[in-house]
Amino acid sequence: MKIIIDAMGGDNAPQAPIEGGVKAAKELGVDIVFVGKTDIIENELKKHVYPSEKISIAHAATLISNHEEPAKAVRSKKDSSIVVAANMLKNGEGDVLLSMGNTGALLAAGLLIVGRIKGVLRPALATLLPSARGAKMLIDAGANTNCKPENLVQFGIMGSIYMKGVMEVEKPTVGLMSNGEEEGKGDELTKETFPLMKQAPLNFIGNIEGRDVMEGTADVMVCDGFVGNVILKTVEGMGSVVSRELKTMFMGSLLTKLGALFVMNGIKGFRKKMDYREYGGAPLLGTKKPVIKGHGSSDAKAVYNAVRQAKRFVESGIIDEIAKNTN
Amino acid sequence: MKIIIDAMGGDNAPQAPIEGGVKAAKELGVDIVFVGKTDIIENELKKHVYPSEKISIAHAATLISNHEEPAKAVRSKKDSSIVVAANMLKNGEGDVLLSMGNTGALLAAGLLIVGRIKGVLRPALATLLPSARGAKMLIDAGANTNCKPENLVQFGIMGSIYMKGVMEVEKPTVGLMSNGEEEGKGDELTKETFPLMKQAPLNFIGNIEGRDVMEGTADVMVCDGFVGNVILKTVEGMGSVVSRELKTMFMGSLLTKLGALFVMNGIKGFRKKMDYREYGGAPLLGTKKPVIKGHGSSDAKAVYNAVRQAKRFVESGIIDEIAKNTN
């Protein structure tokens, strides 16, 4: 299996993608092809010892930064790392694409270059979020700001297939994100979606609310990409503020530092549970071949976990499963 | 000043509303009228020592529970505590109404009985949320699930007036909740709202994202009530999960318990900063007289703080200010 990694994307590129990719090549039995400027990648690779037969480079002269207009950049920058990587995926020069770069550009490349599965109206970005009951999926986490009821139903179907095939959840529960649990609650979109969800081949548990995100009430939380993006960033933002506050609290005095020592293991366990890096990246569901968006701030460990997830994504065969269930 | 308290609403009624109300009568120099079943209120009042001239009872034979359809219940249950209380407010038998009960019913009573300020298209529920930079306002937190751009602009105006008049923030900053900071980001609603916000008499700082909720980037965060409700409940849910996890962590062993002792003051400070009870209730903005929704799970302390806030709301004179600025 060959993993295509955009070596130029993300806050810590090229260091993190390359370190994480090299580790994956050594430990996960996968081949890696790094896409980006050859000289930069070669320089970075010199820092590592690795099995050279498992690692290769595909040259891309430029890159798409986070500040560029995604669809326009994908159309015009044919030699950017994301576009080159997406074309390689399309042409079978790799089995799955992982990028930590510009989210919009990766989505556009997925849509315009890799292409939609026939029957899928809108591919969606699916993020795994930590919760009190383990990793749960939020779909759509930002690919489609304006959705129709049929889109949301497909998000539920694709998300269920992923949670079953890749995350090994038997009969994943699906909840529709709303402003109240009762069937009558919601905005126009979710009110129209509710009856369709009930009829769809889903383990639908009805409306869920914001409080269910961290409680982990549903395995798959369905919403449009605007609401999903707001939820995702609210949770991330709250996580980083809480982390920071706890740190300040523990570093306050000699006594609190001593206290912190005693609770260190617990804190580590808690942080690990809430750490996005443990959960790999966000799969784009609905494209003909697997595409994964790694977190922009991914370090090498997060990249490594995203590669592990990419491998499971390919092995699971869920793309065929999605194609069968969205026709 | 007379505060009308719905003694029957909330998870801890009648104990919490009455204990909190009595404390407020003693310490804040306000008169309190408790609305609900006379015998129940009298029984509860027996537990307290209080200045009897500052406390009175208005009888309401029934109540609206959390499971009733709000608008219908308000129309049909004329003798419910919320409806009796709203009529008292309308008729000048009190200066402000505070209820911890059914949110929808309170909103409906505010709209149907107390009435909109002329010029206000839609009253909105405004919640104060803790953040790294202190209390910030989320408006609309759930009154209006489907909004138009003009509604959001008015939410920004009303929220700014409240933050200035009641929370004493000079030139409150206003952010439009979206899925990205750039001007072009958003769904149909927020894209149409953005240019109107720019023209409005607001200290508008542009789009904000979910991560800005806890960072406290804007004093007033504007969104429709569907998105606002999802944000509010996501934050609340995350707060309670984090609290629970930390508790489990600290109570894990003798050693961690000892450690927890050393950091106890810090934890208390952190919890206080993140505690909704410190922030009072959620004002309904846009009605002719002040209405405040206290948190359903309010204890006596939260009720007391909500009364303190209700008093400031009345004294601030911001209802006239809103009327002047929404014509």
UniProtKB/TrEMBL annotation, chains A, B:
Lineage per the UniProt record: Bacteria, Bacillati, Bacillota, Clostridia, Candidatus Ornithomonoglobus
SUPFAM superfamilies found in the cross-reference section: Isocitrate/Isopropylmalate dehydrogenase-like
Gene3D superfamilies to which the protein is assigned, alphabetical: Isopropylmalate Dehydrogenase
Primary residence: cytoplasm
Organism this protein belongs to: Candidatus Ornithomonoglobus intestinigallinarum
Gene for this chain: plsX
PANTHER family: FATTY ACID/PHOSPHOLIPID SYNTHESIS PROTEIN PLSX (PTHR30100), PHOSPHATE ACYLTRANSFERASE (PTHR30100:SF1)
Protein name: Phosphate acyltransferase
Any single GO CC term annotated in Swiss-Prot or TrEMBL for this entry: cytoplasm
Involved pathway(s): Lipid metabolism; phospholipid metabolism
Catalysed reaction, written as an equation: a fatty acyl-[ACP] + phosphate = an acyl phosphate + holo-[ACP]
